[in-house]
Amino acid sequence: MKKMKKAAALMMTAAMVLSMAACGSSNAKETTAAEGTETQAASQAADGEEKTIYIYQMKTEIQDALEEVCAIYSESHPGVKFVCESASDNYNTSLKTKFSGGDAPDIFSVTGYSDAVVWQSQLADLTGEAFTSEMVDASAENVTVDGKVIAFPLSVEAAGYVYNTALFEQAGITEVPTTKEELADAVQKLADAGVAVPISETYMDWYQLGNFMINLGFAGQEDPKAFIDGLSDGSTSFVGNKVFEELADFITFEYALDTNPATTDFNTQTSLVGSGDMAITIGGNWSQPTYDSMNPDLPVSLMGIPYSSNEKENDQLYLVGTYWGVNKDSENLDEVKDFLNWLVTSDEGKECMTKTLQLIPAYNNMEADADSIGALGQAVSDYIAAGKVDTIYYTFYPDGFAQAAGEAVQKLGAGKSTNEEFLQELQDAWDNLSK
After folding, report:
1. Cα separation of 366 and 358, whole Å?
2. Taking Cα atoms as reference points, which of 265, 294, 299, 298 lies closest to residue 282?
3. From CA 233, how far away is CA 242, in angstroms rounded?
4. DSSP state at residue 399
5. Which of 81, 119, 154, 403 is 20 to 30 A from residue 73's alpha carbon, by CA?
6. What are phi and psi for residue 56, nearest 5 degrees?
């Protein structure tokens, strides 16, 4: 691992260890309040004052669990109820539409630092709230802008290849592939063993391609943040960059290995993994609740994405936080803050975070629940403990670049552009969106 990269990864790792020891349809449901005992909430109920907190967020896989958490909160806060809606497809566009159309949520997803900057004028200042004193450093950096905390870190997650351990065993694969060549060999063994879908990605959707696949090129830089800064000031470029040239080769290489890449979207991917028919695909531990609902005994784990012949560069997962912003113009601002603080500071809230929502928390005062985070979460924990992690850098992209990059990956994989055209397309998108 390169020196600068290693330093960044180790700093991230240390922060994450302290806290521990995706693309789908939209769903909206209302969770009503039940009777409780808290004085303020009881007073509100007696006065007939009822508050509804509208949560619009992009972790579709926690929709049901989030509704459960909101119901638990309402039991002790009878004056508060919730409407929870989760969506990933075109989330950013729909969020902007909600704000412009007068349907702005009280709580909404922001993807990290750059997204927080974009939404800064609409985000409430949360500096000094009780939860802020417990944030791990790596998460705090992504939600602190101009010295103010303007978002709520929800969890720590990691991306890599999700793989089916039973199918690997069936194919006689005893070690996960850590090079491009070993990946091709493993896919052939899986095919020979009769596995229906040895490997496939969501080439119908830009989201995973633009956020996770393209990240391999950023994370592989000697100094990823300096490279990103250079893209904006013109001192670096995608064109002629050896790491991105290598990534372009991998995209066409992997597309050729894939089973039905042009017809695989997020729902198809999830269904095939959950049914045990797909052996390898990009994903992360955020999918554990979804897989559990399909098959609680699904034999899955996480490994690095071997996009090159360099074993050390490939044998790692890529960390990312998930964050909620709070609408500064919310009529329920105090109630929203109380809810967020409850999640972090109360025993009931911490149990909701670690067990009900099955999250790896971004806070020093709670640890992930081994039985709740499942095999994928445990794999993330193991990679963190081994120091084999890097960062997902999409939070530092210009607004809209992830989608543009994902669409460029789609074209390259399908043979509709050359490697050189792909790199130029990335450069043009960055230049246009960073103005």
Report:
1. 12
2. 265
3. 19
4. T
5. 119
6. -125, 110
The CA distance from 109 to 152, in Å, is 9
Give residue 57's Cα distance to chain centre. 12
Per-residue pLDDT reduced to its tens digit, 37-65: 233 444 444 455 899 999 999 999 899 99
In contact, 167 and 197? CB cutoff 8 Å: no
Structure tokens at 270: 């999830």
Rounded to the nearest 10 degrees, what angle do helices 3-20 and 370-385 cross at?
150
Regarding beta strands 144-145 and 197-199, do their DSSP bridges make them parallel or antiparallel, or are they unpaired?
Answer: unpaired
- Please give the pLDDT value at position 27: 54
Task: Output the pTM of the full model.
Answer: 0.71
Per mean pLDDT, which range of 167-181, 304-318, 323-337, 355-369 is the poorest?
Answer: 355-369
Task: Say yes or no to pLDDT of 3 above 80.
Answer: no
CB-CB contact of 341 with 348 (8 Å): no
Beta strand 107-110 pairing with 317-326: antiparallel
pLDDT at residue 47, rounded to an integer? 53
* DSSP-derived 3-state class of residue 33: coil
Q: Are 195 and 279 in contact (CB under 8 A)?
A: yes
pLDDT in tens, 371-428: 888 999 999 988 887 888 888 888 889 989 999 999 999 999 999 999 999 999 999 9
Q: Is residue 153 a contact partner of residue 362, using CB atoms and an 8 Å limit?
A: yes
Rg (CA), the chain: 22
DSSP string, 69-133: HHHHHHHH-TTEEEEEEE--TTHHHHHHHHHHTT---SEEEE-SHHHHHHTGGGB---TT-GGGG
Residue showing tokens 């994370």: 219
DSSP codes, 178-245: -SHHHHHHHHHHHHHTT-SEEE---TT-SHHIIIIITHHHHHTSSSHHHHHHHHHHTS--STT-HHHH
Q: Work out the number of other CB atoms within 10 angstroms of the CB of residue 209.
A: 25
3-state secondary structure of 40: helix
Residue 381 sits at the vertex; the CA angle it makes with 139 and 303, to the nearest 5 degrees, is 105
Calpha distance 97→99 (Å, rounded): 5
Question: In this predicted model, what pLDDT tens digit does every residue of 205-249 receive, in sequence order?
Answer: 999 999 999 999 999 999 998 999 999 999 999 999 999 999 999
Mean pLDDT of 163-178: 97
Task: Give me the helix-helix angle, 242-257 and 180-192, nearest 10°.
Answer: 0
